[in-house]
Amino acid sequence: MRTSRRTFIGSVSAAAIVSSSGIAFGQKKYDEGVTDTEIKIGNTNPYSGPASSYGAIGKTIDAYWKSVNAAGGINGRKVNFISLDDGYSPPKTVEVVRQLVEQEKIFALFQSLGTPCNTAIHKYMNQKKVPQLYVATGASKWGDPKHFPWTMGFQPDYHTEAVIYAKHILANVKDAKIGVLMQNDDFGRDYFGGLQQGLGKEANRIIKHVTYEVTDPTVDSQVIQLKDSGASVFVNISAPKQAAQAIRKAADIGWKPAQYLVNVSVSVAAVMKPAGFDNSQGILTAFYLKDATDKQWDSDAEMKTWRAWMDKWMPGANKADANHVYGYTVSTLMHETLKRCGNTLTRENLMKQAASFQKFRIPMLLPGILVNTSPTDFYPIQAVQLARFKGESWSLFGEIMHSESA
C-alpha cells in the first residue's frame, strides 16, 4: 500500500516568546518532537481503501496547519504535520504509527482515524506515553483516563448517540420493529450496545441484526435481509460508503422504514448525494456541528469565516462535505491546546491542557454546545441535537441533548 506523507514545516527566529496577554512564558521545557522553531505532530488517515472518503479530514487538517504556519505558527513555532495513509487497516496503522513515534519522533499523535485502527495502537501509545489526542472516532473507550491517560476522544461518544436514537424510536414509532445494519468491529458494537441499552426492556424490538465487513463490496444482501424481516425501523450503523449503498438499496427494493443514520456518515457530499436525495428524505441523525448545507447558517459569522478559509486554503473542495467542517473544528481545539502549553511543550503538559477546558467555545459547534474536560472527564463534547434530512440538506429540530457519559 502506498504511504502518503503530507508535511508542512517552516522556520522562525527563536526570539523570546510572549503570550497574547503580553506576559512572557517561563523557561522553555521540551519533550521529543519540539524545538525552538517546530512542533512535530503525527496523524494517520485512510487516504486509500474502503474508508477513503474520510481522507477529506486529513486534507483539511493539513490545510489548517498550513494556514497557521503562514500566520506565524503557535507561540512562534511552526507545526510540522506528518500524515500517513493507513488505508483503514489496523495492521497498517500499527506500522505507520511506529514509524511516526520511533523514526519521526513526533511530539503527539493527533486525530488518528477509525475505531479499529485506534484500538490497534491504544496500548502502544499509552505504553510509550505519547499523546493519542482528539482521536477521530466516538467510541466510548477513548474516555478512560484512569487506564489510558494518554488517549482522549473528541466527538460525542457512539454509545450515547445510539441511546438517543433508541429513546426517539420508542417515543415516536408505534410498535417499532427494528432492523440494524452494523459494521462488524468495535465501531459497530459500540453503537449497537448503546441502542440495546437505550431500548432497555424493549430491546426485543430489534428483530433483525446483520453485519458487514469493511472490505465487503456491497451491503445489498444485508439490506434485503432487513426488509424481509418485516422491520419498520432501519438503524444504519455504517461508514460513509456502506451507508450510502444501504440507503439507495432500501429505496431500490421498495423498503420504506423510519431510518436512523449515525453521525459519522452524515456528509451530504459523501453519503446523501450518492445515496440519492429522493431516497434520503426523512432520515434522522444527531448533529453537534453546523452543517454547511443548512441555509440557517448562511449569515452566521462562524460559517462565513469557515467559507472564506475554505476558499483560500482548500479552493475547489466541496463545502457540502461535512468532513471539512469536522477537520477544521477539531484542529482549532488542538491549536488552542498547543497554544496553552506555552513554552512547556512536554507531553504531560499537553495532556494536562487538553484536560482543562471549561465551557470553551470552538468554531462551528452548534449553539449551546461547548468543550468541557477535566482530569477525570476525557469526553470533550457531550451534547447533540437531532436533525432530519429534507430536500438537499439537514434540518435541525428539538433541543440540545446532553450526553450521559460525563
Describe this structure in words.
- The protein is an alpha/beta fold.
- It has twelve helices and 15 strands.
- Helix 2 packs parallel to helix 3.
- The strands form four sheets. It has a five-stranded mixed beta sheet, with helices on both faces. Strands 8-7-9-10 form a four-stranded parallel beta sheet, sandwiched between helices. Strands 11, 13, 14 and 15 form a four-stranded antiparallel beta sheet that branches.
- It has two domains: 5-155 and 299-382, Response regulator (Rossmann fold); 158-287, 3-Layer(aba) Sandwich (Rossmann fold), CATH 3.40.50.
- Strand 7 (178-183), helix 5 (186-199) and strand 8 (206-212) form a beta-alpha-beta unit.
- It has helices at 55-70, 90-103, 115-128, 158-172, 186-199, 220-228, 240-252, 268-275, 277-280, 301-313, 322-340, 347-354, and strands spanning 5-6, 29-30, 38-45, 78-85, 108-110, 132-133, 178-183, 206-212, 233-237, 258-261, 284-287, 344-345, 383-390, 393-396, 401-402.
Distance between the termini: 39 Å
Largest sheet: 5 strands, mixed
Structural class: alpha/beta
Q: Kindly report the oligomeric state of this protein.
A: single chain
| CATH fold-type name of the largest domain | Rossmann fold
Described by the principal axes of the CA atoms, the overall outline is globular
Q: Tell me roughly what share of residues is in helical segments.
A: 25-40%
Could you report the average pLDDT, rounded to the nearest whole number? 92
How much of the residues is beta strand, in percent?
A: 15-25%
Can you identify the CATH superfamily of the largest domain?
Response regulator
Q: How many β-strand stretches? A: 15
Low-confidence stretches: 1-25
Radius of gyration: 21 Å
The tally of structural domains comes to 2
Number of helices: 12
Name the CATH class of the largest domain: Alpha Beta
Second CATH tier, the architecture of the largest domain: 3-Layer(aba) Sandwich
